[in-house]
Specification:
Elements (H helix, E strand, L loop, with lengths): L1 H33 L12 E7 L6 H9 L3 E7 L3 H4 L9 H14 L4 E4 L9 H10 L5 E6 L14 H9 L4 E5 L1 H14 L5 E2 L1 H5 L4 H10 L3 E4 L5 H13 L1 H10 L4 E2 L14 H16 L2 E4 L3 E6 L5 H17 L4
Parallel strand pairs: 1-2, 2-3, 4-5, 5-6, 6-7, 7-8
Antiparallel strand pairs: 9-10
This protein binds zinc ion.
Length: about 325
Amino acid sequence: MKKILRGIVKFLIVLIFISPLLFRGIHAILPHLKAPQWTGISPTYRIINAHEHFQSMECVPKFLEAMKRNDVEKTVILGSPEATILSGRRGFFGEEKYNLAVLEIAKADPEHFIAFPTINVKDPEKLEKLKQYLAMGGQGLKLYSGHSMFHEIPLDDPGMLPVYEYCEKNRIPILFHVNAGVYQQEFENVLKRFPNLRVICPHFCLSSIASERFKHLMNTYPSLYTDLSFGFIDFLKAGLLRISQDPEKFREMVIQYQDRIFFGTDMVVTDAPYKTADWLANVARAYRDMLEKETYTFSEIGPMTLRGIHLDPPVLEKIYHTNFERFFYGKKS
Ligand SMILES: [Zn+2]
């Protein structure tokens, strides 16, 4: 008995001496246990695509097939002026037709689609029309007035204030295309005046090169969000090449604002013959590859190896899903 007791005491003494070492050892191991090393096997994501344009109901089957192949289960579809849908058009017109198209699609398939109609900022009836669209199932507002092609009145024009006020009061999110390089002051006037307005300024607020401007906006306005889409295929190619030249810079920026960034494809789904299910799936996959992988290729660019930003799965999970759930449905992550 005594022998056993002596043994236990010895063991405890040894334990006390080596415990700091043990403790340090555990601490060294702990981070690895918490964040498992990337295995190279893609986890399955349930992705929400926060930015897409649609021409008509006829485009839905090919789009859904492409999204299924990329684990996208829900998409925000935006009302558009005709110039966004068809090439060779100028100015802001035709939006009512495309609003009705996205409202119809979301109504027919609410499991996969959320519609954000748009308004013509010069229309004196714009607020009434917005209310009608919301009554028809619209769940947000898309604005193009910060796009240099559609900048017909200043963003902080007095005629727009009732619209912003209504959206702020009723928690209607706005996907607001703003070229912050040109309209920063007008945009900031709106954000200052309506601090609780929930705004997604897509494409890094057109500031992925001017990252200081982007950081200033995100730091100053906590209700401001962005998405990772680039839009038109030539802009996408340029964007992916730019990221590939300095993935670290982009990676750091995405990680810094990981709670306020959404995934978006912005491919503009039309009946253009080249926009097949394969093409749509391929473009959506390029966005995912850029976010998920260290290196990848994109057939639209050619055989060249591109460098991606290789985000960790917990960050991807936020960008792909939980940020939007919190922003849109108020779900706590
Ligand atoms: Zn867009």
